[in-house]
Design a protein that fits this description.
By secondary structure, this protein is of the alpha+beta class. The chain contains 3 helices and 5 strands. The radius of gyration is 14 Å and the shape is globular.
Length: 127
Amino acid sequence: MRRVPASGEKPLHWVGSSKRDFVEFPKPVQEDMGSALGIAQFGGTAPSAKPWKGLGSGVLEVVELHDGNAYRAVYTVRFEEVVYVLHAFQKKSPSGIRTAKRDVDLVADRLKAAQKDHEEQYGKSKH
């Protein structure tokens, strides 16, 4: 059942397998990340959201630690009408700083897919 968005709430669109991956996360991680995404839907930025490096402004990530594992959700607020969740994944080496190239490339590809979807759904962006 879909609920009617609240006034000023942007819809959340999941790109690729991001929703399927997100629902595999432990419940406390889903709840915390869901709160951060909810804040984004109303135009805000959660304190836990940080800029995602390499793709410019408007691409953010939320990192949650749970039972020694690091979980990430990457989303974009570049579009006026909608928030796109680009990728949700468990970082395999919580001690390492670098994110796997595969994940970095996937976020870039899904940002392009979100741009295309946005143009089809809402018309050309002002970017």
